[in-house]
Amino acid sequence: MSITPLLPCFAALWLAACVPYASRPLVAGHSAAAFTGRSLSDPGLRQFLAGQGTGAGAWDVDRLALAAAYFQGEVVVARAEAQAVAAGIRTAGQRPNPVLSFSPGYNTTSKGISPWLLSPAVEVTLETAGKRGLRLASARAKAEAAQLRVAVAAWDARAKVRSAMLDLHAAGENTTLLNTEVALHETVVDKLLMQVHAGETPGFELTQGRLGLSRAKLALHDAEKQDATSRAQLAAAVGVPSAALEAVTLDFSEFTTLPAAPGAGMRQHALTHRADLLAALADYAAADAELRLEIAKQYPDVHLSPGYEFDQGDNKWSLGFGMEVPILNQNRGPIAEAQAKRKVAGARFEAKQQAVFGEIETALAAYHAAMAKAGTATKLAEQAAHASDTTGRMVAAGELAPLELTRRRIEASTAKLALLEASIQAQVAVGRLEAAVQRPLRGAK
How far is Cα 122 from Cα 97, in angstroms, rounded to an integer? Predict the structure, then answer.
């Protein structure tokens, strides 16, 4: 039986199994329009939040961090890279295709018999030493590392969201306090101006009062500027335009209290379970699988070549056998390279773990210091408020001039601003500590 009529059938089956090309043009104008149209009511985002067990409500740090995990460019890129690496698992699991060869011939001196010589043959490669399994092990470890780096990118996005949200909260609180302080300074200037005109107060005091008012107004302008820029920075951290934040309610309640410092258990957990450390471990596993694969390549694959030959009317069958003869090299070079790469992967993990330990220790020390400063600022603010209340009672009793009460209120306002600054610094330390352990500190142990 001739194989020639079957060739079109094989070709048709092969073409039907091929993956067609799908065009996906990327147009800058279209992507820009899609970005400017983003909102926190996006159906895809709502579905994503539901999948994370988060329902409707005010937008606090955690909800905005999840929105950043959905929208933010660096997280999206990390997710796409993870999908690309995961596709390598299918490649690693593929078995070598058989090779079909066909060498027709024609005998011009043939007499009385068919002059054609047809010799189709198929070569099949049989991999040895478990090479396919080792390729799969390496590909799976690389895919795991890439997926863990998505978590790293999500944590980085969360840290940026929290930082920008804290800046926005600080700007709002500063603006409120500074508006009060500006009003108090204006009252002082007005009273001093009347006293100077009456000859009761030297002009120097009026100049000092005006300088205090100028400083308060400049600080207020800075706070208003920070409010505008922080809102834009928060939108950028989430991955949405600023208009998307104007349509939602932001919840700053996380910044009203300071959580307890993490205990030894959480710190130890970070040293063994941080996403970037687990990714480094997966890199090491991939390097180890690559080394095992290079060692397995010392053992040659087997090539079987069953063939058929139609030789001028005679049907001839054959079975070829082939394998690489490892006499010039035994794959020692690639093995040495793989051993060195595994050593590098191990060193990178250990170096990263040491860096994480130092990061946690530094962040913890900074948090303790910030908490102590916030405690001192709280006491000073309470003392200033008490002094203002005492002065108010003395003014009411006619023992002091009303101007003294305004000055005590300015001092109390200044103490509140100092307390706010200390509290914000402590919250910054909280953010760095959370980033170091890659877990929120609420409920930390």
Answer: 10
Which comes out higher in pLDDT, residue 242 or 308? 242
Burial of 16 (0-12, 13-18, 19+ CB in 10 A): exposed
> CB 382: neighbour CB atoms within 10 A?
13
Q: Do 149 and 95 form a contact (C-beta atoms < 8 A)?
A: no
CB-count burial class (<10 Å; 0-12, 13-18, 19+) for 301: middle
Q: Where are the domains of the chain?
A: 58-96+131-299+332-437
pTM of the model: 0.84
Helix, strand, coil percentages (3-state) for the chain, rounded to 5, are 70, 10, 20
- Region for residue 415 given its phi and psi (left: phi exceeds 0; alpha: psi -120 to 50; beta: otherwise): alpha
Distance, CA of 78 to CA of 99 (rounded, Å): 38
As its CATH architecture, domain 58-96+131-299+332-437 has Up-down Bundle (1.20)
Secondary structure element (H or E) that encloses residue 155, with its range: helix 131-197
Nearest Cα to Cα of residue 424 among 229, 226, 247, 263:
226
pLDDT in tens, 57-115: 789 999 999 999 999 999 999 999 999 999 999 999 999 888 888 888 887 777 767 77
Give which of 304, 425, 324 is closest to 372, Cα–Cα.
Answer: 425
Triad 33, 39, 42: Cα angle to 5°:
105
| Nearest-angstrom CA–CA distance, 388 and 386 | 5
